[in-house]
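Subject: sequence -> C-alpha cells, single chain

Hey, anyone have a minute? Need the predicted structure for the following. Not urgent.
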Amino acid sequence: VRVMSEEPQRAPAGAGLANVYFGATLLGLAAVFVKWGLNGGATPITVGLYRMLFALPGIAWIAGRKGVGSGRGAAWAFVAGVAFAGDLTLWHAAMNHTSAANATFIICGLTPVWVALFSVAFYHTRYRACGWLGQLLGIAGALLLAVARGARVGR
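Reply:
Had a minute. Here:
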C-alpha cells in the first residue's frame, strides 16, 4: 500500500532511452527476419500472418485493460488497425520486388510525408517552409532509392 505523501517510484534516468534503443533494434531486425522468411520459401501473406499471430497476445492484453475499447475510441482503433494492416500488406508485398532496406524505407520511411499531407488535407494544418523542405527531401530520397542502380534485388 502506497501512502499518498510518498513520491512515485521513477525509472532510472537511462531506462527510457534504453527502451527506445531496444525497440529500434527490434524494428530494424524485422525487415531482415521477414526477408529470411521470404527467401526460405514463405509467401508475404504467410510471414504477415505469423507476425500478427505473435503480436496477438500483446494486443489482447492492451484491449483487455480497463477503459479501452469503448465508444468513439474503439472506432478510431479499428480504423488504425485497418491502416496498419494495409501498411504491413504493402511492406510484405514490396519485399518480393526490392531489398529489405528499400522496402522499409519506401513503405515505412515515407510515413511522415503521408501524415503531413493528410493533416493538411483534413485538419488544415499549415507547415512552415522548413517543414515542406523536409518533406521534399524525404520524397527525393525515396525516389533516389527507387531508381538507383541495384535497387531492385528481387528474391
